Amino acid sequence: MYDKQFNLKLTLMSKYYMKRCIGLISTMTILGMMFAFAPQSTFADTMPIEVIPINDRPFLMPIKDILYTDDGLVVKGFIEQGTIRTGDTLETVGFGVSRLVVVKSIYLGNKPIDEAMARDTVSVTLGGIKKSSEVERGQVLAQPGSIQAHTEFKSEIYMLTKEEGGRVTPIFNGYRPQFYFFRTVDITGVITLPEGTETVSPGETVEVSIKLISPIALQPGTSFEVREGGRGVATGEVSEIIK
What we know:
CATH architecture of the largest domain: Beta Barrel
Strand content: 35-45%
CATH superfamily of the largest domain: Translation factors
CATH class of the largest domain: Mainly Beta
Oligomer: single chain
């Protein structure tokens, strides 16, 4: 039981702090600290036998910025996984609308390129879009059929402590914060606590059900931040899609 709870908290917190430590300390330093303080069985029991290289996974890029130019609609974002090439057919997903689009051109900074990979921040000119309102910040550009928009899911969340910048009071059933996905969009939602659980205090980890007011592209493993007024108070990861 200890190992399971420690591993869950370690996973959620490592993702939370890695996003904030870029440019301050290296990822290798963080990983070294994780292995140094984890119980011996924590990683041995959970380490996957086979890991798919990030560039071989289905393409996924959250849309951060949108611009309509003479050449067409341009979307900008950070490639989470996969590879994109000029001429590819992709899909915009999120907020209940999915559209097939064609990659007309790719820019890395001001330089035109034929191919981009995971961890690149690129601008992509899309064909098949008639007006800029057909694409929104917070949607994702993805390999067709690889991800869908959902509103309800289960998740294990870790409530940050006061020292970590979180709340000083517990949350109750029906708690209604914002959920920050892909570093691009906040979506309001409602948290339902497990039956028999009345409150969750800072520093605790709990499995909850979450219902969003708008459908957003999600899949098991999608991480997010729980926010109040733009301030992170918890971190979590989608474990199961409900609807």
